[in-house]
Amino acid sequence: MAEKEISSEEIFKEFKEHSIAEFFKKNRQMLGYSGMVRSLVTVVHEYVTNSLDACEAANILPDIDVAVTEIGENKYRVRVKDNGPGIPKKFVGKALGTILAGTKFHQYVQQRGQQGIGAAGGLLFAQVTTGKPLFVNSSEKGKAYSCKIAIDTQKNSPIVTEMTDLTEEFKGLSIEGEFADVKYEKSEHGIYEYLKRTALSNPHCQIKFTDPDGKENVFLRAVSAMPQKPVPTLPHPLGLAINDLLEFAHASQSRKISSFFVDTFARTTSNKVAELREIAKTVDFDKPPRSLTWTDAEELIKAIRAVKWIAPDATAIIPIGEAQVKIALKNILDPEFMNVVERKPRVFRGGIPFVVEAAVAYGGKAGYQTDEGSAGAILRFANRVPLLFDTANCAITEAVKTIEWKRYNIDMETQPVSVFVNLSSVHVPYSGVGKEAISKEDEIIEEIRLAVMEAARGVQQFIRGKQHATFEAGRYKTTMRYAKQLAKDLSELTGANEKELFDSLDKIVTKHYPHLKKQDEEENAKAAKGKKEEAEEEEGAVSE
Amino acid sequence: MAEKEISSEEIFKEFKEHSIAEFFKKNRQMLGYSGMVRSLVTVVHEYVTNSLDACEAANILPDIDVAVTEIGENKYRVRVKDNGPGIPKKFVGKALGTILAGTKFHQYVQQRGQQGIGAAGGLLFAQVTTGKPLFVNSSEKGKAYSCKIAIDTQKNSPIVTEMTDLTEEFKGLSIEGEFADVKYEKSEHGIYEYLKRTALSNPHCQIKFTDPDGKENVFLRAVSAMPQKPVPTLPHPLGLAINDLLEFAHASQSRKISSFFVDTFARTTSNKVAELREIAKTVDFDKPPRSLTWTDAEELIKAIRAVKWIAPDATAIIPIGEAQVKIALKNILDPEFMNVVERKPRVFRGGIPFVVEAAVAYGGKAGYQTDEGSAGAILRFANRVPLLFDTANCAITEAVKTIEWKRYNIDMETQPVSVFVNLSSVHVPYSGVGKEAISKEDEIIEEIRLAVMEAARGVQQFIRGKQHATFEAGRYKTTMRYAKQLAKDLSELTGANEKELFDSLDKIVTKHYPHLKKQDEEENAKAAKGKKEEAEEEEGAVSE
C-alpha cells in the first residue's frame, strides 16, 4: 500500500512475444518429458509414430528398428530406423526441427500424429539435456544422405549442418539422438511394453528392439496385408462451428454460396442446399462465399442443425478391424477366451466422426500378475498408438471404471482380464499436447462404455460356461469315483471281474459326458509336463 | 500391398507450418475448454488471474468485479472488470489477441500467469463458439478508451476495431465476451467455488460476483495490506542445463566468462568462479562468453555440480504467509481448529526454487457435506490460483493421498477435514497448458507430503485433545448423575435437605472439572437455539 502505483506503460516495457519452441523448452513436461522412464518412452513413441505414419502414407509395410544404448548415468542414445519413404532434403530440417510443422495438420484424415509437434519436441529434449543435434540418415529418390539437425528455439527454426550425400545403399529414415535425464526400465510403463502394445495394435508391422543390454526382441508381423488406407474426406456440416464455416467460405474458390456448400462439405447435395435456403431466408445463396458475414454464418449454422443429414462418412477412419485385433490379442496375450467388438462410426462435438473398437480377453497372459494373483488391465489406444501414461485423465479409463463389472461375472480386482480399447478418429481430442490421454468428452465416454459392455457380454457367456463346466467336471469326477467303488464292491460280493464291471459302468457314464472324459485324460497328461512349460513361458518374451 | 509405393516428394507436397492459434483452435480442450461447466470457469479464471497479476504489478489492492449473464441456451456473457493499471493502447491487441505474448514469460519472478496463453485463449474460445470479439474498456495515462479485439488465427495476430476514446471516468480494465457451449452451475467445480477459493488464497483482494440470477456475492477483503512483492532474482547455477548456460553466455554483454558468471547468476561470487576454474581446467575463463562452446558448457555444468552453493534466494517467491492463511481459512471455513505450516524454500530440477504452504483444518465448514455425513476435501493452489480440475493428475493430490492419515487420527473418508496446499514458484511445472494441475515431479510431491504431515501433526494434538475432552465430559456427567442420586438417597436416609447435599457434592466434583461444568451448561443452552442457527447457516453464502 505504501508503495507507489506503477503505470501500465512501465509494466508493458517488458512486453514480448516468444516462440512455441521457447515455450515448450520451459514446459517440456507438457510434451510428456517428465519422469526419467516416461521421458525415454516419449522419445521412442514420437519417432516410432512418425515412422508408422510415413510407411503407411507411402504404402510400405513398416519394418521398424529401435535401439537404445546406455552412454552415461541417466543418459542414453536412441535410434529409430524405418523402411519408409524418407524425407526430401528440402524439408528434413523443418520436418524434424520446427514445432507445428508437418504434412498432417490440415488433412481431414486419420493419422497417428496430427499436430506436428512430436518430432521437433524430441529434438528440443535432446538439445536441452545433452546439447546434441539429431543425426539423420534418409533416402530421397533412391539416393541417401545424412545430416545433423539442431533447433534455434528463439526462432523455432531448424539448423541443418553437415549435409552429406551417401554412397552406401540406404532406404528409409533413421533418426539418432542422445538424451539425458532419462532411464531405461523394462516395466509396465517402459519402452518394451510400449513397443509390445504398438505391435498389438499394428499387426501389419514388424518391430525389432535392441535394449540397453544388447538383447534383441522381435515383435513379428502377424498379418502381411497393409491396413486399408483412410481416404481424406470433406468435413461434415454438423461438425462446423460458425467460425469454421466463415473460414471455409472466405478461403473458397466457389462462385456462389450454394456451390460452395456442395463443393466443400460432405453429404451436401444441391437438394440439401435447397432445404437450407428454405430455412436461412435472410442469406443470399447467390453471392460469393468470401462475402459471407458472421450473421449469415450464424443463420446457416442454425439451418444446418435444423435439417436431417446422413451420418458422416467414415472412410476417413480405418479401425484395426475385428479379425486383426483377434490375431493380435491371440499373438500377444494368448487368452483362454476373448470377445472383440467393432462399433459403427459415431460423432462427437456435432460432427467429428470416430470409431471405437473394444475387446475383453480372459485368461492366458491377460491382466496383470500381482503378488496376490491376477488383476484386470486396461490397454488404451488412440489411432493404434498405445497410451501408457496419464491413465486417470483418460476417457477410456473413465468409461471402463464406470462399468458395473459384476453384471458380467467379471471382477477387475482379481481376475486375469484385459480390456482393450482403440479409438480411431480424424481428430482425436487428446487432453494434453503430450497425447497421453483422450479428453473426457461425454459422447466419447458413452460410446466406449457401450463398446466395452458389448465385448464383456460375450465373455460373460464364456465365464458362465466355465462355471457350468467346472460344475459338470466335478459331477463327472464324483460319479466316476462312485463307479470305481461300486465295481470294487460288486466284484467282492459277486466274484465278477472288477475291471470288466468298471468298464461297463464307465461306458454308461461316458455316454452322458463324452467331452468330460477326454478333458479329464488331457488334464492328467498335462499335469505331468506342466511345470516344465511354465518355466519356459516365464523366460520367453512375446515373440522373440 | 498391392498399392503402389508413394514417394516422399508426393507426401511432402502437403507440408505446411501452422500457427499456435490454429493449433489451439483445433485443440481447445488443452486450454481447459472441455465440458460446459469447466469451460465457463476457465474463461473467468483466465481474466481474473490476469487482473490480479496486473493489480499487484502496479501496487494496487485488487477490486475485481465478475458478472455472468445468460444470453441463450448454453450461451453466456462474461465480464471481468478490475481497478488495475489497464493496458496501453499500443499493446492491447497483442496482450489479449496473440497467443504466447505477454510481460511475464521472460521474468524470473513468481506470477500467476506465466505463459502468455490464457487471455488470447479466452478470445479464441469466444470467437470459435459465438464469433464475437472481446469488448474491452481500459485506462491509459488517466484517459479511458474502448475497442473490440478479434484474433486472426492463421497469423496468431489481433484484429483491433472500433478504437474509441471515452469521455467518462474509467480506471482499470474491463473485458467482456460472449461464449457458447458453456453452462453455469453453482457446484464444487463452478465459478462461485472458484472465486471463493481465489478469495481464500488472496485475502488482500475483494471480489464481487454477480451470478446469472442477478444475485450479488461479495467476497470481502480480509487484510488490507498488499502482499509483499516478489523481487525478480538471477537464476541459480544449479538450475541450469548445458543448453541454458550456452544461451545465457551467447546473449551476454560481459567481457569475460568469469565476469559473465558473476553478472548473470545468483550466489556466484568471484570466489565461486575461482572454485569453478579449479575444476573446469579446460575452459578459458578469460575469453568472451559468446565464444563459449558446448564442450566448455558441459565442463562448466560438471564443475557447478561439484561445488557447494548457498541455496537459491527465495525473494522471488512470496507465499501467502501463515497469518494470512489463518485469517482466510477462518473467514471461509471457520473451522474448530486448524494448523498452518509454511515451509522453507526448496528446489526442484536442480535449482528452481519453490515454497509450499499447507494447512489442515478440522470442523466448521471444512470438508464436504455428503449424504452420509462429512468427508475430507483437498484445496489445491499454485501461486495463489485455485486448481479445480484434473485432480487425479496433480502432485498435490498424489502427495495427500499417499499420507497415512490414520497416524494423525484423521479419516479423510468420514471427517470434516480440509487440506489446503499452495505451491509458490517462479516456474510452476503445470502438467498441461490449461494449468489445472501440477506435474508430478518427485521433489515437489515429497515436499508437499512433508508440509501436509507437519500440518496434520498439529491437528492430531487437537483431535487427541478432543477425544480426551469427550472422555472427560462423559466422566463428569456420570459423576454428576451419581451425585444427584447420592443427594437424594442421603436426604431420604437422614432427612437433610436434598438441594444442599447436592450443591456441596457438586462443589467437590466441580473443583476437579471446572471447565466441564461450564461446557455442559453452554451445551444445554446451545441445544435450544441450535436448530434455528443451522437453518440460517445453510442459506447464507460465505460472506455476502
Helix count from the secondary structure assignment of chain A: 15
**What is the CATH topology of the largest domain in chain A?**
Ribosomal Protein S5, domain 2
Supply the helix-strand structural class of chain A.
alpha+beta
Q: Mean pLDDT across all residues of chain A, rounded?
A: 86
Termini Cα gap of chain A: 71 Å
Low-confidence stretches of chain A: 533-544
What is the class of the largest domain in chain A in the CATH system? Alpha Beta
Q: Give the largest interface.
A: A-B, 84 and 84 residues
User: Strand order, biggest sheet of chain A?
Assistant: 7-6-5-8-3-2-9-10
The percent range for strand residues of chain A is 15-25%
**Could you say what the CATH architecture of the largest domain in chain A is?**
2-Layer Sandwich
Number of strands of chain A: 18
Please summarize the sheet with the most strands of chain A.
8 strands, mixed
Shape of chain A: globular
Oligomer: homodimer
Task: Summarize the amount of helix of chain A as a percent range.
Answer: 40-55%
How many domain units of chain A? Answer: 3
What gyration radius of chain A follows from the Cα positions, in whole Å? 30 Å
